[in-house]
Design brief:
three-stranded antiparallel β-sheet; elongated; 5 strands
Length: 245
């Protein structure tokens, strides 16, 4: 439930590193490449490689499809098709690097576009986050917020730096990320026990003690022991509410 390994990075980054190993790189490019080469493909808050990967992938999509969008005057926003275009690009990068989608009027293949996208990624991150790639940590650009149902500003929890992305089991898409798998539960059928956690608390009332009492546990990936209805009715410290018409 809290696995932060980006499965797409596990497929694409080796292909990118192969291209970079055959290319002339600037010092900044080399530093970014070295971070990717040592990366475990996990989108953790302290990982600069996670930031490099994510921005490279978005730039790679843009450099592949953007020229077609412009020349054909496509009226649909490319961002609306990002996932579907990414699936095509993934397949072509792995199995069809000379696909005619890459050239667009010039002698280019997947490797050429990857190299261009990588250069642009490093330049953009240098302008945004400074000249030291080791400082480009994921937590500086990726945050998560637990939004209240009423969408009242100031009553949400966050945004705070958080791990994961749209391709990890710990799903955390968007910037800031405000949706994804929320309620988590693990059941031990043999022992008849279960654990779980809410993203925030069990109450939507900001004045309640249960409004955000589970937020820290949820962010950390911790689970709390749960009680059955019968157990809750006889356990010391529980509170009982009677709802009457």
């Amino acid at each position: 439930q809290t696995d932060t390994r980006d499965f797409l990075a596990g497929e694409i980054v080796p292909a990118l590193l192969n291209v970079l190993s055959q290319s002339t790189l600037s010092p900044a490019d080399k530093s970014a490449r070295d971070l990717l080469a040592k990366w475990d493909e996990r989108m953790e808050v302290a990982s600069p490689a996670a930031t490099i990967w994510w921005n490279f992938w978005q730039t790679y999509i843009q450099e592949t499809f953007g020229p077609w969008w412009q020349s054909k005057k496509v009226k649909v926003d490319m961002a609306e098709l990002n996932d579907m275009l990414g699936q095509d690009l993934e397949a072509w990068t792995l199995y069809d690097q000379n696909n005619p989608a890459f050239p667009h009027g010039t002698a280019r293949n997947a490797g050429d576009v990857m190299l261009l996208a990588f250069h642009k990624t490093v330049n953009a991150l240098t302008k945004q986050l400074g000249g030291n790639p080791s400082k480009w940590t994921w937590g500086r650009v990726h945050t998560r917020v637990l939004e209240n149902l009423a969408q009242v500003r100031g009553l949400s929890d966050g945004p705070v730096p958080d791990r994961g992305d749209g391709y990890t089991p710990l799903a955390a898409p968007d910037f800031p990320s405000s949706h994804g798998p929320s309620w988590r539960m693990v059941v031990d059928w043999g022992a008849h026990t279960f654990e779980g956690v809410y993203p925030g608390g069990q109450s939507e009332n900001p004045a309640s003690d249960w409004y955000e009492n589970r937020a820290a546990d949820w962010f950390a990936g911790r689970l709390d022991p749960m009680l059955t209805a019968d157990q809750a009715g006889t356990t010391s410290g529980t509170k009982r509410w009677d709802l009457r018409p």
